[in-house]
Structures are given as structure tokens and as C-alpha cells.
Amino acid sequence: MEEIYELTGFVLTGTIRENGAQVIEAQSLQREAICPRCQKSSSRVHSYYNRFPQDLPVCDKNVRLALQVRRFRCMNEDCPQSTFVEQMPVIINKSARKTNRLKNALVAIAFESGGEAGAHLANKLQIEVSPDTLLRLIRNYPTTKTDTTRVMGIDDFALRKGDTYGTILIDLEKHIPIDLLPDRTSGTLAEWLKAHPGIKIITRDRSNEYARGVSEGGPEIIQITDRWHLLHNLREALERMLNRFRERLNKLPVVGELASYDKETKAGRLRKLSLAELELREAKRQRRYELFTEAQKLHQENVSIREISKKLSISRTTVYKLVASHSFPERASNKISPSILDPFIIYLRKRFDEGCENGSQLYREIHEQGYIGTYKQVSRWVHHHRKQPAKNTPKIHILKNNAQVQNHATLLAPRQLAWLLVKDPNNLDKVEQSMLNHIRQDADVEKAYDLAQHFQKMVRERVSTELDDWIYQCLNSSIIDLVNFSTGLQRDHDCVFMALREKWSNGQTEGQVNRLKLIKRKMYGRANFDLLRQRVLFSNSP
Fold it and tell me: Does pTM top 0.85 for this prediction?
């Protein structure tokens, strides 16, 4: 038994079964002990008593120890403590009810699984523990202080999305979180930086609060704007521009290749909308139109964006889009999704043009060619492309089909179009390239495309020497969205310049935020800031 179950400083005397648990009895081998008050050694035994701590399970059985320990008499006449109990720090701490190795196992379970989930897991492993005990272990666990940080990343995270936010600080050289701050204000960050000198470089997003906090807390610290946020903000500016240009882009002459490619090779939407769905779509459009009208009216009355957002209960991003649009922004058609029918569309269209409008016949023909879908999909395609209803079509369906509105927008949504302006042209497929060529017929879009591609190249290749010239071109482009974007770069010029010169970015900071979100969601609503901070910083511990 002693070979497979080790208790340092004890000799095993026997085992018994009691209430479904395995009780292991052991006696202390310690001949003398040190008085905790006077630090004098004593070998005179005063009495014996038993301790019954919980230990790790053995052979899928709950284990409790029955440890017989000694109480010694202090031989120092000047010591106010006459007797004391021998301590066994290797096995169990003073007054503890669990052995150290069991406590370490519970700490690991608590940090990895949390309270409720951790308790369920521990009970399945034959360890009796409550969720509150696990949370208490997390709160009481000492976090290891890291050495002086030289390069640090800063980003915010949501404790309660849209309401309460915090700040995460990452050591970019050691790839570990340093600390969590309870808010994302400049004052809190400045105080933290003053208490932790030695930081040389900080990467951050384009938040004014973080910029102010770093300037106040460490004026000598080099600030670097995150490159991903620069590209993201450029894409947002292009999206706002395309949203404003939507009406005139719809009037551009349609490129022949763009008009025919999808029609020839894609199945598209085969199921026509019902009258109820059309009514619901129209009701949603009316709601969006009312928001647009109200936002435009408040904006003309010089109401701030923040106040419009609160009054209409919509995000500030949506308000910016509504007030920047010269006309009501209609919803664009969705991008056509792949269909199981796509490989056979060219053949179906050829047979259809030859006069075969029999869905069953067409289904049999493509089934022999390898089509594994259902007949209904082919039938819908035929029904969708008929110019006249079939002879056996009931009149009620003819009336419903006449009610369908076949006014599909050619353009994609502004967000999807913005991606076309910033993507590498070599990575665009045939449809995307056709759509890009279509919108580039507009002179302002062509100018914005050249500027966007230039900026993408600058950021990817980190060419800082071309920044000032690019900003100058934007300021003189007469495109208000790019003018505003470049004005913001001017205000943050030094940080943007360093972003195009240095290797550091906020990439791994974003990864740590993603890890934080995963931890937070596993806590089942018990993600108070103190618990969340302990679990995030647990990776620093040995």
C-alpha cells in the first residue's frame, strides 16, 4: 500500500470503508517539532489527536485520511505557549480540511472550468466540492507578478456589451496578460502606467481615451497604432462613401459580363416569396424609412449623433450611415449562395432554350449526369424561368406569381462592395472582378480605389515614407469620407507613422481578448470582474 500511496512523514497503518468512502489511516513519524511561537525544538509528546482531511480519489473511490498527529510540550520556560501541534506543510496546511495535492487539483479544475461546471466535473471524479468553494479558491489564489514589461498591448473588452467595458494589458514579448482594468478611461490607464514604470512601447487601437491615458501616464512611451484597425477604419470610410453614392451607382450602365455571368452559371433564389413574406419585407422597409427620415430631420436640427442614437434606440454607426446618405439606402440583394444545381445550370439553360420546359424530363437527364439533388429543386428552376405559366398551373398560383416583385438590385451591399475596393485584385473571382469594374465607372469610386490600394500596400509592406503624400492626396480628393479618415490620421500622425515602421501590432492582444471572452462565457453569469481577472491572469502562474 505504501508503494502506491505516499504520505511523506507518515506510515500507513490500515484502510477501512466508511459511508462509501475509503479511509486511510496513518501515524506521524516525526519525533520532534518546532514551537511556532519561540522557534525552539521539542521532543516531549503531550498528547495525540486525529485529523480527517479529504485527499485525491483512488481507484474511483472517495478518499479521506485519518492522520494521527502529536501535540508537543514546549520546553522553553519563557515561551507563553505551553503546547503546540506538529505541522505537516508538505501534506496539509494548518487548519486545512483538504490535502495540498487535492487543493492543487481543485485549483486547476476551478480555473479551467469555473464554479458550476467545475463542481460537476469534480463530483464525477469522486471529489466532493461545491461551486462556491471553487470560486473561493479562484479568488484566494495569489497571482504572480510579472517582471518589468517593455512592450505592451492595450485593448478593451465588454463586461456587458454596450454598457460596461474594461481594459486588458498584454506583454507582447512574453505573450501573456499582465493585468485587467475595470474600465477603459484615460485616468485609470494613466494611474496604472505611473505605478508600473519601465514600459517603452505600447500598441493600441485608435481610441482617444487610450491615447490620452498613455500620454498622461508615460509621456516618454512610444505609441503604435494597430495596423488592422487602420485597414478596418479605411474600409468603414469606403463603406460610408459607397452608401452615399448608392443612388448614382445604380444608374451606371450595366457591364454585359456582369449581367450574364450569374444568370448563366448560378441557380440563384429559386423559391419565390409568399405574399406574407413580401408584406413583412415591406413593413421592415417602412420602419427603416421612418428611421432614416427621423435621423435626417434631427441631424438638420443640429442634434448630436449621440443624442440621435439614444432617441431612436439605434447604434451610432447606424446613425452615421443614415445622416451621411443623400437618399434612402435601399437594402441590396444578397450575394448568391452556391447551389447543388450550379454545375448543371448551363445544360439546363441550353435545354430550356431548345424548348424543353418539362421539369421531370430535365431532372432525369441531369440525374444521369451525376446530379444528386431532388426533383423539386429542378422543378423550381423551371418554374422560375418560365415566361408563361404551364398549362396545368392552377389560377390561384398564377395570381400569386403575378404579385411577385421582380426588381432585384444589381449591386451588392455597400459593405460587400467596400471589400472589393480593399482586396488584392489577384484574389478576386470572376464575379467580384466584374462587379469591381462596374462600380469603377464612377470617377470618385475609381479615385477611392486607387487610394485604398495604395494604403493597403503601404500598411502591408510597412512603407512609412509614403504616409504624408497619401494623406495629402486624400485631403485633396474631394471625397468627404476619405478626407475625414485622413484628418484622423493627421491627428494621430506619429503613432500611425510608427505603425508603418515598427513590427509590433495588436494582433496577439486581440487573441487574448478572444480567450477572455471564452473564459467569460464559461462562467455562466458568475463573471464578476475579480473572478474574471483571476482566471485571465492564471496563465502567468507557475
Answer: no
